[in-house]
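Check these lines:
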Amino acid sequence: MCEPGLNCTPVNVLTDLKIDSSYMAFNANGSFVYVEKRTLLNINLETSSCSAFKYNTSVVEEDPSNAFWAYDKASKRLILTDNTADDNGASFESYQLEIDGKKFVITFENGDKEEYTKK
């Protein structure tokens, strides 16, 4: 892909994933649904050059992730468990959660944050 005479620095440009939209619902019965619509970008090796990458795109609608949720108001922790029954058992995730009106912010163990707004 690098044209003769050019000093091309290798980077991971073969694929990219962009999240176009996401939807989540916390239902009163403790169930939880999360769906993402993504665009998958795959490099087109025929039409790309070292200085101008061209991608083929495809839109992917993720299957809904079904889980169960609970919120511990005292510790401000959101607890999610998946809805799978396999040999490994169910998985549990716990996140710090700040709620402010129609907005909430999840803080992950590594300190990263994601903000969501109720529509």
